[in-house]
Write a structure and sequence with these properties.
Distance between the termini: 46 Å
Largest sheet: none
InterPro entries: UPF0154
Helix content: over 70%
Protein name: UPF0154 protein D4N35_008365
Keywords: Cell membrane, Membrane, Transmembrane, Transmembrane helix
Organism: Siminovitchia fortis
Membrane topology: Single-pass membrane protein
Order of helices and strands: HHH
Radius of gyration: 22 Å
Shape: rod-shaped
Length: 73
Amino acid sequence: MVWQLILTGAIALLAGVALGFFIARKYMMDYLKKNPPINEQMLRMMMMQMGMKPSQKKINQMMGMMKKQMDNK
């Protein structure tokens, strides 16, 4: 009787942890897709700080590469 209670509790705990992990992962992936961590203005500023002269073509290329990398994950 007691071992059934312990076994049920352990299974419920593992299932809850697994379910919580996948829900949190899905939420974060959706959040990052809607709110990317970097935008064109930030990229332009970073390039200027590194001493580069950012052209719109180069910025578009880098944004495309970053978007492609996010889609692959």
